[in-house]
Design brief:
Elements: E1 16-20, E2 28-34, E3 37-47, E4 60-67, H1 79-82, H2 87-101, E5 112-122, H3 127-148, E6 161-169, E7 172-175, H4 179-182, E8 187-194, E9 199-206, H5 213-231, E10 240-242, H6 256-262
Parallel strand pairs: 4-5
Antiparallel strand pairs: 1-2, 1-10, 2-3, 3-5, 6-7, 6-8, 8-9
Length: about 270
């Protein structure tokens, strides 16, 4: 049995904290903290679609992912400064966009595009899965706003999704590895799962040695169990905080006002 940071069990998620509408310029936003990984996601909708969709009366969803310069211990160059995006940012942006398009009915948007902007404020492993999970949460949140304002007349989300990372080291399966664990594991996988119990995407592989199928099956089980925890977060217009593991899906809720006044941490 591997000893993990904060004495986490192998099947335990890092503590996560969710804060909605952290700024007002976007239609909706969310700050999603998963352990020491912190991702800010904002959603807006604008008129117009990519050229290949013009004139068809249907919409589109586009996602952009970026790692801010001081998100890591060694400052990275801002992509706008170098006038080019890294291959990693492009790949993760496409991963987020294509996953979300499986649960968004773009036919109901008219010729409008939903933009999801994901900025990693602090990286400690699992940034892509945190960004995708947060993106779905903020879409569910903004859908209520758009319906109330009659920007849309019918719900556009057909399901919910979460993304979960699972690592394998030796004979141990590690749910939600942090950077220190991720940098030494033998294999890692990202699972994108729906609330309805279906699978959108699984990607990953061995990095050191081939792994047994039984370990992959255990990784899948951990991901499915952890997904229930994230799906059980009640997405009201409040800050929500939880310490979660696959053996405890009781989610305490705290309002932003109470959290700021009490300075409570989770």
């Amino acid at each position: 049995m591997i000893e993990r940071n904060a004495n986490r069990r192998n099947d335990e998620l890092r503590p996560f904290l969710i804060t909605y509408d952290v700024f007002s310029n976007a239609d909706a936003s969310i700050l999603f903290e998963l352990g020491n990984t912190k991702v800010l996601c904002a959603v807006t909708m604008q008129a117009g679609v990519p050229p290949f969709l013009r004139g068809q009366g249907i919409g589109w969803l586009n996602a952009e992912y970026a790692l801010l310069p001081t998100a890591t211990s060694i400052r990275a160059q801002r992509e706008s400064t170098s006038a080019t995006r890294t291959g990693r940012s492009v790949e993760i942006s496409r991963f987020i966009g294509r996953s979300l398009r499986t649960i968004v009915n773009c036919n109901l948007l008219g010729e409008r595009t939903i933009y999801i902007d994901c900025d990693v404020l602090q990286a400690d492993g699992g940034t892509r899965v945190a960004a995708l999970t947060a993106s779905c949460m903020v879409l569910r949140h903004v859908q209520k706003k758009w319906l109330a304002k009659k920007i849309i007349t019918t719900p556009i989300l057909t399901d919910d999704l979460v993304a979960i990372s699972v690592g394998i080291k030796g004979s141990d399966v590690l749910l939600d590895p942090d950077y220190q664990e991720d940098s030494t594991i033998d294999a890692d996988f990202n699972f994108v799962l729906t609330r309805s119990g279906r699978m959108i995407e699984v990607h990953g592989g061995a990095e050191q040695i081939p792994i047994e199928w039984s370990l992959f099956d255990k990784a899948r089980m951990y991901a499915m169990q952890a997904s229930h925890i994230l799906f059980n977060v009640n997405t009201v217009n409040q800050t929500q905080a939880s310490i979660s593991s696959v053996s405890d899906i009781s989610i305490p809720l705290f309002s932003l006002k109470n959290r700021l006044s009490s300075k409570q941490t989770v």
